[in-house]
Amino acid sequence: MAKFVVTGGAGFIGCNTVERLLRDGQEVIVIDNLSRKGTESNLAYLQRQGEFTFVRADLRDADAVAAVFKQHGGIDTVIHLAGQVAVTTSVKDPREDFEINALGTFNVLEGIRLSGQTPLVIYSSTNKVYGGMEHIVIDELEDRYVYRDYPLGIPETELLDFHSPYGCSKGAADQYVRDYHRIYGIPTVVMRQSCIYGYRQFGVEDQGWVAWFVIAAVLGKDISIYGDGKQVRDVLFIEDLVEAYLMASANRDKVAGKIFNIGGGPQFTMSVWREFGPMIEEALGRKIPVTYGEWRPGDQPCYVSDIRKAKEELGWEPKVSVQEGVHRLVKWVSDNQHLFA
């Protein structure tokens, strides 16, 4: 049995991660402030799955964070998932975004350092740290955009170019996590994640777009497409992401100090509506009406991760196809409509 701390453990990714850890018989400490919609429901769900320690704390409270690592020794892995997750929210309130993502991550790192422990720290970063990548040539096809010169996607060597307050706060945290390995010897690994989707995701229009489109379609809510719907993203089902975390945890010496792109890669991509829409319609057996609006500022026509490094060094690669993942999510939302009332 290993001991894990999961920050944001009642969120979408956190809930699925904690559920897997409990199923594997691990000891788990969950930190969450329960501020996000759906977290209380997720926490109640987890409490039915097994025993774990829950600490209600806000990562902006340095003393509260430090107390967790002072009181709980023998921690093997910290999976740091808590954060502000929407670009639009960061634009509206950049200070709060900074304090949650950058300062909150700093508080986690300092809490670990001051405790004298050296657990592996897995940080949930984002592909947004690469910015708009305006220099990359993109071609337009009938139903999607594609990279002209990057058929395998964007590698970890792409220059950082933080764009939006969210990109800046997550990017700052990304680099702090990396540097705490170099300077303080704490084993850390940065996971630059693409679009993650799956069970217990309470997506909204501004964030978690895959889940939001499915929820809106199932419940008959209005769906607005910003742009032409050809924007392409690589998408990753939640089970595959959790597997990446566990593989990193089992190989701490191999991953310490490294950065990995974790996403669906070039094999698991879809355009935001031109390809995704028909999948939902097939799963529900009916047409889904949508409206189209102007492009959002900074919206990339295409983003696909090059995930070869994770495969080569960890043996990890995604397994749940886009078609299968979308059908699973549609069924889960359809079976759990009461959670979205």
What is the fold's blueprint, element by element?
Elements: E1 3-7, H1 12-23, E2 27-32, H2 39-47, E3 53-56, H3 62-71, E4 77-80, H4 87-92, H5 94-115, E5 120-126, E6 138-140, E7 145-147, H6 164-184, E8 188-193, E9 195-197, H7 209-219, E10 224-226, E11 232-237, H8 238-249, H9 252-255, E12 258-262, E13 269-271, H10 276-284, E14 291-293, E15 302-303, H11 308-314, H12 322-335
Parallel strand pairs: 1-2, 1-4, 2-3, 4-5, 5-8, 8-12, 9-11, 10-14, 11-15
Antiparallel strand pairs: 6-7, 11-13
Helix pairs in contact: 1-2, 1-8, 3-5, 5-6, 7-12, 10-12
Can you describe what's shown?
This protein is α/β, with parallel strands linked by helices. The chain has a single domain, classed as NAD(P)-binding Rossmann-like Domain (Rossmann fold, 3-Layer(aba) Sandwich), CATH 3.40.50. 40% of the residues lie in helices and 18% in strands. It contains twelve helices and 15 strands. Strands 3-2-1-4-5-8-12 form a seven-stranded parallel beta sheet, sandwiched between helices. Strands 9, 11, 13 and 15 form a four-stranded mixed beta sheet that branches. Helix 2 links the parallel strand 2 and strand 3. Helix 1 runs parallel beside helix 2.
